[in-house]
């Protein structure tokens, strides 16, 4: 069988060795032949070892850090921790940051319909604008700040971006509930 763990492909000429995108894995010793390209940043205590638990420690390409920005002027829901419904609405102009976040799978987390309606959580409450006396949905669009880094790197970046936003605006973006 040419496959072993997630993303590993066996080399028929080099018995017991499996290629893993960036380096070779030796199935007899349970270690890699070269150092982890990200060193100790991935949280593994050894730069030659396989992950602690291959069933839960799967991070093929890492996370994406993103900003959701207003597609047009409108009223966007404000959320608080522990509440699924908005506690208020805030006026945002086109291009203003609505939310800063990180996720493993952006397309799974936010459908195109949800983005077009400014819906970012399970409340199904979206953003809207009053255009010529008509209430119409307005959306958000993603700007990817970082893609495919380690969980630790991306969570650190997300926290840094949230802190910078709070330092400049004295509050979290309307779509964020907390700064972890």
Automatic annotation (TrEMBL):
Organism domain of life: Bacteria
Recorded hits in Gene3D superfamilies, A to Z, give: RHS repeat-associated core
InterPro entries to which the protein is assigned, alphabetical: Rhs_assc_core, T6SS_VgrG/RHS
Q: What is this protein called?
A: RHS repeat-associated core domain-containing protein
Q: Which organism is it from?
A: Treponema pedis
| Taxonomic lineage | Bacteria, Pseudomonadati, Spirochaetota, Spirochaetia, Spirochaetales
């Amino acid at each position: 069988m040419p496959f072993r763990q997630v993303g590993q492909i066996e080399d028929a000429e080099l018995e017991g060795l499996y290629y893993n995108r960036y380096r070779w894995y030796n199935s007899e010793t349970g270690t890699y032949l070269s150092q982890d390209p990200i060193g100790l940043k991935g949280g593994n205590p050894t730069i030659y070892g396989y992950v602690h638990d291959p069933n839960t420690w799967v991070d093929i390409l890492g996370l994406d850090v993103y900003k959701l920005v207003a597609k047009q002027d409108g009223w966007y829901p404000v959320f608080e921790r522990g509440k699924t419904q908005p506690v208020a609405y805030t006026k945002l102009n086109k291009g203003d940051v609505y939310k800063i976040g990180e996720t493993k799978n952006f397309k799974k987390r936010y459908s195109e319909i949800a983005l077009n309606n400014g819906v970012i959580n399970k409340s199904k409450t979206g953003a809207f604008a009053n255009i010529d006396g008509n209430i119409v949905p307005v959306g958000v669009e993603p700007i990817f700040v970082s893609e495919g880094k380690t969980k630790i790197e991306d969570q650190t970046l997300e926290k840094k971006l949230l802190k910078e936003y709070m330092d400049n605006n004295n509050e979290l973006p309307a779509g964020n509930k907390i700064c972890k």
